[in-house]
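Objective 1b. Sequence-to-structure analysis of Molybdenum cofactor biosysynthesis protein.
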Amino acid sequence: MSSTQQPSVGSLYRYPVKSMLGETVDALDVDDRGARGDRQWALVDDVTGRVASAKQARLWRTLLTCSARLDDGRVLISLPDGSTVTAGEDGVDDVLSEFLARRVRMSDSREEGASLERADPDQVLDQGVDAEVDAPLLELAEATPGDSFVDFAPLHVITTATLNHIGIEAQRYRPNVVIETPPGYPPYTENEWTGRTLVLGSARLTALGPTPRCVVPTLEHGRLGRAPQALRTPAVENRVQSFDFGELPCAGSYVAVAVPGTLRVGTPFTVD
């Protein structure tokens, strides 16, 4: 890539089931609810009623050994043993409950006040993934209309400058949009987007603020091993104010959709 090349959409992702691995796509339809098919389903703990998330690594990190993809409107879930089940079909709750050794049910409709446990990431790194650590509740999708199970905002965008600087694969940060940036583009520039408009073809996205990082990127993702630097590096270099959550390690930007459209790989990217 030449040093004068304009930033563009490098890759696009969606995650049909919360906390499972997702899929790369060439195009992504977006509106005020986020990306079509993204975080469409989640597992809900039968005992607590909370949404299962690898943010509570002690209970749910094995979700990251599963993957989900859209296929003709169905969500297909692949388990580590190579078997495949379909979200919403009879028996899928039993299969996933047995796999997780904890009773769960699948849901494609986020209930009002739905929440998950966000284990303190620093404590998890220091004490290990099986340790009993502080785990305050996080209410889901406070900045997102509709039923999806996003953490907060409709979409998450990050640059290759930030990813390459930290030395992390994009999948670990679970973005929807990765912006391919030319050499010399500074990392953590996403901090400066807040309040501005991101232009990607016909779509217009409004940057809401820096994305706070949790323990999830440090965990094993499928065949990818542990990566503590995914949290520790931004904790040292980019601990900034993130909404009203306080000063937290951040990488990337949460965004809302101001003008719906279809995002495509290769589309030029500008910030107004």
